[in-house]
UniProtKB/TrEMBL annotation:
SMART domains: CobW_C. One of its GO terms (molecular function) is hydrolase activity. GO terms for cellular component: cytoplasm. The keyword Hydrolase applies. Residues 218-308 form the CobW C-terminal domain. The keyword Hydrolase applies. Belongs to the SIMIBI class G3E GTPase family. ZNG1 subfamily. This is GTP-binding protein. Keywords: Chaperone, Hydrolase, Nucleotide-binding. InterPro entries: CobW-likC_sf, CobW-like_C, CobW/HypB/UreG_nucleotide-bd, P-loop_NTPase, Zinc-reg_GTPase_activator. Zinc chaperone that directly transfers zinc cofactor to target proteins, thereby activating them. Zinc is transferred from the CXCC motif in the GTPase domain to the zinc binding site in target proteins in a process requiring GTP hydrolysis.
Length: 317
């Protein structure tokens, strides 16, 4: 079973560790492990108290785990060998890191098979940008923002209304507003991991339970099909849906290779299709996540219906 990865990037002091703490404190029922800064591995469970900047985790049970030595692959391998193994992994990069190189490593087929990259989230410091508007032209800052599937705007409470409006407008030149969230409003684990693991065989992914609690911010739509889809028509549907979506994930088979199930993921503007060993009675089961009001359910269903082979009865909800 593969273990999904979320990569957290951003300038030093932007608020990356605060976001990682939010994931660890409210993991959505997952057991999360974290690789922090220089890929020092830390063990995490649901009763985490806090995470310090030097990679030390303090747990209520008194266990303290310090950073481990080694590169990314070795650290990931050690985490996967733990008993129990984590359900998910969060990697916090150094503030001086361009996430592109780490993304390249994580997309290596061998690594991706064991630890598929789910989301790259870049934390942006609103206070820093208000004080230093020249930062918008900094090459590393721009690379970090460009490398994120989503951006989290932190420290908005430290900026007055006029400065914050200017920061948002300037940031919109680099990242679409639909892909930018204020840190306090982000239901972190549910949006970044987009689900509760693999759905049971033969059953469509359900509405994410914690997203329902934030229905004023997000909505989700599920889609299933009994017959394989046409790859070109599916790609066309995804192309139409992508500008309206934050995330999409699920399993799908195509009519040219009906015996080769694929895992589909879309986050921000990045989409992947990779083979998977997951099988089931349905040829497709997908969940789409968007900001509330951004997704026309009937139109989304019609676009996906058009990708299904003749004679199928698709289902969306």
């Amino acid at each position: 079973m593969s273990v999904p990865v979320v990569l957290v990037a951003g300038f030093l002091g932007a608020g990356k560790t605060t976001l990682v703490n939010a994931l660890l404190r409210d993991p959505g029922g997952r057991r999360i492990a974290a690789l922090v800064n220089d890929f020092g591995a830390i063990d995490v469970d649901a009763d985490l108290l806090g995470l310090s900047n030097d990679g030390v985790v303090s747990l209520r049970n008194g266990c303290i785990c310090c950073s481990l030595q080694g590169d990314l692959m070795r650290s990931l391998t050690r985490l996967l060998r733990r008993d129990p193994a984590p359900d998910a992994i969060v990697i916090e990069t150094s503030g001086a890191a361009d996430p592109a190189e780490i993304v390249r490593q994580l997309l290596d087929p061998v690594i991706f098979a064991a630890t598929p990259l789910e989301t790259v989230v870049t934390v942006v410091d609103a206070r820093h940008l208000a004080d230093r508007p020249d930062l918008f032209e900094d090459g590393l800052w721009r690379a970090q923002v460009a490398g994120g599937d989503l951006c989290v705007l932190a420290k908005t409470d430290l900026v007055d209304a006029s400065d914050l409006a200017r920061v948002r407008a300037d940031l919109a030149r680099h990242k679409p507003p639909r892909l930018t969230f204020d840190a306090p409003a982000l239901p972190a684990a549910d949006l970044l991991f987009s689900g509760e693991g693999r759905p049971p065989e033969g059953r469509a992914p359900a509405r994410l339970p914690r997203l329902a609690a934030a229905a004023d911010l997000f909505e989700s739509v599920s889609f299933t099909a009994q017959r394989p889809l046409s790859l070109p028509r599916f790609q066309a549907a995804v192309g139409r849906l992508a500008p309206r979506l934050l995330r999409a994930k699920g399993f799908v088979t195509f009519d040219h290779q009906p015996d080769r199930p694929m895992l589909f993921q879309l986050v921000g503007t990045r989409a992947t299709l990779v083979p998977t060993a997951v099988t089931g009675d349905l040829a497709a089961r997908l969940v789409l996540i968007a900001r509330a009001g951004d997704l026309d359910r009937d139109r989304a269903a019609a676009w996906l219906d058009a990708a299904v082979g003749p004679g199928d009865e698709a289902r969306s909800g």
